[in-house]
Design a protein that fits this description.
Helices cover 74% and strands 0% of the residues. By secondary structure, the chain is mainly alpha-helical. The chain is elongated. The two termini are 15 Å apart.
């Protein structure tokens, strides 16, 4: 069960990235960088949880979660370059990286303050 959340989140992101105009009601009203940040923060937290559950130290899980999220972000941006009306953006990728690292860090900090992390 550790790996279901990150895989599910990556599938949702991939599915949304495959669409020329995903969720237009949302994307027309919310800044796209905020959406990227939130998606990838959730992914970073899910990666961190899975990696800690596999026995990695907190620091190793944080670095690995941020790296895995960044790698997926690069692949997602490349994937979007083939979708009509979409493009690859270094700014989107940087937002993905910041979101993933932040999500992993917050999940890790949550574990320090809550008994059942």
């Amino acid at each position: 069960m550790l790996w279901l959340p990150p895989v599910a989140i990556m599938l949702v992101i991939f599915s949304l990235s495959s669409q020329s105009r995903p969720l237009p009601i949302l994307t027309e009203h919310v800044w796209d960088k905020l959406l990227h940040f939130i998606e990838y923060a959730a992914l970073g937290a899910a990666w961190y949880r899975a990696l800690r559950g596999e026995g990695l130290s907190a620091a190793s899980a944080l670095v690995a979660a941020a790296a895995a999220t960044a790698a997926f972000g690069v692949s997602d941006e490349w994937h979007q370059s083939f979708v009509p009306l979409r493009d690859a953006s270094i700014r989107d990728w940087m937002t993905d990286l910041m979101g993933g690292a932040t999500g992993a860090a917050f999940y890790g900090l949550r574990g320090r303050f809550c008994r059942d992390s």
